Amino acid sequence: MDKRGKLYFRYGTMGSAKTALLLTQAYNFEERGLNYLCMKPIIDNRENNNVIRSRIGIERECTWIYQDMNIYEYVKDLYEESLVVKDWILVDEAQFLSAEQIDELARIVDDFGTNVVCYGLRTDFQSHLFEGSRRLFELADTIEEIKSTCACGRKTSINARIDGHGNIVTDGNQVEIGGDDRYIAMCRSCWRNKRLESAERNSLKFQSE
Ligand SMILES: [Zn+2]
User: Is this structure's pTM higher than 0.90?
Assistant: First the structure.
């Protein structure tokens, strides 16, 4: 097959406008008459509108990726039924995919020449790689960082989880459903200082109780 595609990983912290960039890319494909497909892992079963939506108000329909779904088989069936091979597949929240699903995306690139662009977070609230992100770092042809700035002026690299009082949370499940407002992107240095402050506040509170 002559057509060569690429697997891309564009990663950034929370609030780095990843979804807005994905939607802008979709819009550009429409302008240029390229066919594409948007996909997104479903982690919240209460969600029933299959759309990718950004805070700036744009949205596009997407195909849900379920936890046990074989993405390669899904796309292969889709191409065979429609007799159309997509030029591009855009994946939002790719950090939530399994390593196996990233392998399936890579196979879509290699077998069909479709370009697959994955947008996602690098690390979780404890600064560890997500499974999907790890596999993307291992396999992607092109890796790009979407940069954003911490309140102190440095580059953000940490997705800190906060509680209702603004204290940094260090324990809990990797994925917390419906809690997007409980994260603040910050640099590593601020994350350390804020964790120390939070720990101090908690111990003061404990003493006064
Ligand atoms: Zn900072």
Answer: yes
